[in-house]
Amino acid sequence: MLDITPPEPLPLGGYTERAGKKFEYGGDYLFARAIALSDGKRRIVLMSAEMLTIPESLVKAVRAKLPADVKLFLAATHTHCAPDSQMLNDRMTLGIPGIANYKRRWLDWYSQRLANCGLTALRSKAVVTADPLTIAQSELKATHARRPGDQPDWTLSRISLGFSPLIYQYAAHPIFYSSDELQLRGDWPGTFMVDGSIVLQGAIGDVSPDLTKEEPKTQILRMHRLAIEGLSKQTEKSIGFGLGWIEEPIKLDAKKPHPDFAKEYKIPQALAQLAVNQFAPSTASVYIVRIGDLAIVGVPGESTAALGRAIQAKGYAAGFKHVLVCSHVNGWIGYILEPEDYDSGGYEATLSLHGRETGTRLVEACERGLRKAALASAP
Q1: Quick one: which of 108, 152, 250, 331 has the fewest CB in 10 Å?
Q2: How far is the C-alpha of 6 from the C-alpha of 38, rounded, in Å?
Q3: Are the C-beta atoms of residues 12 and 83 closer than 8 Å to each other?
Q4: pLDDT score of 125
Q5: pLDDT of residue 132
Q6: C-alpha atoms less than 13 angstroms from C-alpha of 152 in its C-beta half-sphere
Q7: Confidence (pLDDT) at 363
Q8: Phi-psi category of residue 78: left, alpha or beta, with phi > 0 → left and psi -120 to 50 → alpha
Q9: For the segment 72-119, what is each residue's pLDDT rounded down to a tens digit?
């Protein structure tokens, strides 16, 4: 675990209505946590950082500071009360209201901190070599679908080594704290990670937590308590330990602003195209970590729950017993929707940056990658 709280106030991300306001002191410390996996032949670092997103330039900079043979699975918790990670996006040189511009100084600072976290994990007892891991899963009804007709995935998963939790995976936007909050907050993932584990977001593209009028901290603690109580009633299942890594490209269409993008940001259409050209990457991949009969699928964006279920189905068809679909891994291509959701418009669609077929392309890439991962694990 390594502190990634900036030494000076920076613009907050997550809510454009904050209009670039800088964070105020007095909130939470933010951390990165990492687990290193090794089977003696390959090494993988799973890292969860209390950040909004993971720009591709940050991934590249962190990789450059790690040993060449190490594979990096870098995920953001997506807390909406962290510095705006667009400051770490080297393409982000065009001013858009409410979104921070690229600052090389902060890319260097964050990448060094995250690399140090990964290097510490590689040197520590967190390196798993032979002991079998286990998975426990329970239903945690703490979220709702933001889009009519959608159904969230209420499955909470925990991967453990012995009695030590290593990974929690659940799908819920970390927005217990609203845009009025100007202090740094880890939101619900920060509370889940107090035991030293990491949190990987599920398919959160259309999933928000159930909010009440209580203080955010009270709601988060209740959610955490219910999660632990639910998991305590479940049987731990061994997942074995054959270790594998697959990186599979997504066949993205050309970058294209949604018809509602210009209206949402109150800019001309030509400027909308220019903004999306700089804001979005041209290439992206999915990243699959195989641990025994478990596949952890890293998606570089925010896919809907329906797409998450479609990816899980591809994993089960490939022969995996457990498939965890994780958002905000090794990049961010925006919200990832099914074609009909894209056509319906709305907030999520305005941040879908490669056209209406992106969700289809994502599932296809996952299917290819999961088949490769399954074949690699075959005796």
Answers
A1: 108
A2: 31
A3: yes
A4: 64
A5: 81
A6: 25
A7: 98
A8: left
A9: 999 999 999 999 999 999 998 877 777 889 999 999 999 999 999 999
